[in-house]
Amino acid sequence: MDLEVRIENLKQEIKEKQNLLAELEEKLTEYKNQQERRKQYMSSKEIIDYVENRSGKLINMSTIKRWTDEGYLGEVIDEREHFWALKTKQGKKRNLYRKSTVLSFLYNRGYIAPYYNVLDEVLYSTENASFSAVVIDVRMENGQFLYKIQLQDYTIIDNIDEKQLKGAENDGEY
Amino acid sequence: MVSIEIKNTNENILIARKIRDANKGSVDGFNLKFTEDNRTIVIEGEKLTIPDKALLTSEVKVNGILKPLANGFEILNEEKGKTVNLHLDAELVKEINVIRSYVKSKTQHDVLLELFKKGLEQFKKENDTHQKRSDR
After folding, report:
1. Interface contact A86, partner B, CB < 8 A
2. Are residues A137 and A161 in the same domain?
3. A118/B33 CB distance under 8 A
């Protein structure tokens, strides 16, 4: 009889652990989901740091507040409400802005600029090789600068992320 | 609005880049783009500068009035008509200069009258030889 009790207890335990596992897995999925979605948003602090890093221009909280009031930064959401699964600083309510809206606005107002301009010589790197290329077009789309480039043999490649490009030496200014 | 159009080739890209850089500090600003078919580089602005005369090759098309500067050109808005970027060889330039020096001291009326007379004379001459030939 002792064995039967032990089996019964173990079954119960397994069931509990399975439930716990499912719960944790669900939490993890949600965490990853939110983490991915969070990338589409920026906090005020992140906007200020981004602009300073990118162009050296300084803006401050009151500028952000003014832009928010004017509606330039689009819809504002509360970080804790939308991203509760992510660890954030406790207690503080934080506004988040949609990155694509914010960056388009910053670009149009001249607060940020692409690293490379039309006609600049760049080095385009793929996993296996690097190519010398010329920038044909730059645009801001969904919060990133996308480039169209032309290789030496006149091949044209579009939708290239800025990260895949490097400035060529004789064009050091950019 | 004036513009410079340059055929998209690796060599011309170097030219276009020099023109771009020369206009970078311009207060009027300018717009630089490739056409949708990627065949042509277009630089547009209220006023543009070509920093060196040598950059104005036969593959560079200018829409506007070319005003020579010490080294290059300034492209200004055309009032009316169109300035065409002509590439003349040395002989043709010489010929034009001869015509220019010939015409310089005359009024437009004189020149037209002379052209008219010469034209008539030429016409008569040709008609005469034609006549003679058919007489034979």
Report:
1. no
2. yes
3. yes
pLDDT in tens, B109-122: 888 898 899 999 99
In B, which residues are within 8 Å of A118 by CB distance? 20, 32-34
**Mean pLDDT (chain B, rounded):** 87
Whether A72 and A127 share a structural domain:
no
* Inter-chain residue contact B33 with A137, CB threshold 8 Å: yes
Q: A103 to each of A6, A44, A54, A64, A148, how far by Cα in Å?
A: 62, 12, 12, 13, 19
Tell me: do A102 and A46 sit in the same domain. yes
Its pTM stands at 0.68
Q: A65-105, pLDDT tens digit by residue?
A: 999 999 999 999 999 889 988 876 666 778 999 999 999 99
On whether both A22 and A50 belong to a single domain, the answer is no
Asked if B17 lies within 8 A of A137 by C-beta distance, the reply is no
- ipTM topping 0.85: no
- Which residue segment(s) compose the domain that A34 sits in? 1-39
Q: Is the dihedral of CA B119, B124, B125, B129 positive or negative?
A: positive
In this structure, the answer to whether residues A87 and A149 fall within a common structural domain is no
Closest residue by Cα to residue B45 from B58, B34, B32: B32
Are residues A56 and A93 both part of a single domain? yes
Same domain, residue pair A104 and A127:
no
Q: Does A134 touch chain B (CB under 8 A)?
A: yes
A57, A151, A71, A142: which is closest to A103 by C-alpha? A142
